[in-house]
Fold this protein.
Amino acid sequence: MQFVTIKEAHNISDLLILKSRIESEGIECRLKNELTTQVLSHIPSMLVELQVAKKDIENVNNIMIETGELKNEHVIINCPKCSSEKYKIKRSIKERWKIVVAIFMSLIAIAPVDNFIGPTKFVCLQCDHEFSS
């Protein structure tokens, strides 16, 4: 049986909750390097790996999405007026300058980028409706 690593951590306790959740669904899983990391815990490059059988990976991904371990990357943005999925990001001159200033300031480690930019606005390519996500 071929096993696949689904999550790594320096500390075994970070993986035990997910391991017990997966096992509660009747899916076999194992911890690789479990004993090595306990003995050599002072070496930061040693990682414990949570592994499952390759045939169970789809079920495990669903469990990880359910528990918040894995984000569901299929986010669809629709225009609230016409439900179109075609859009572009709209930035005013002021917002563009804020981005330039935020990037410059974050490069010199004064302020994080998110404080200056603000919410993202979208423009529907079918009906020209402006909206935020």
